[in-house]
Input
Amino acid sequence: MTWTQRQVQLPPLSRGWHLVTAELVSALPELAETERGVLHVFVQHTSASLSINENADPDVPTDLEASINAIAPEDFPYRHTLEGPDDMPAHVKNSLLGCSLSIPVAGGRLALGTWQGIYLVEHRNQGGGRRVVLTLHGE
Output
């Protein structure tokens, strides 16, 4: 069993759901040599999230963004407002969606379902670049 860890810097992305599966996989060439194991993906921010969801229909990320905005709206009477009206809702969304994923690895590939992909969910209007830590454990 071996461990590999790498940090990936994603560029600034607009608010919404961004498919990042290919970027993450390409940053970890050791994945192709791993017969079985687990990839842990962790975003080092409290105003962005990670999610596995459908990667085929472009309406899905749009609907997911609308749904999460309805759950944590900017016009809620938050107390933490010093960083702008999109900041506290971003923290709520991060708490709901989470900042990490664990994905099985089989035969040198992520064992995602046919229509599944990894999304970086940017909750801020101007979030900046995002750091993602990839930790691969396998054989």
Remarks:
- The radius of gyration is 16 Å.
- The chain has a mean pLDDT of 97.
- The first strand starts at residue 2 and ends at 10.
- Residues 24 and 89 are 26 Å apart (CA to CA).
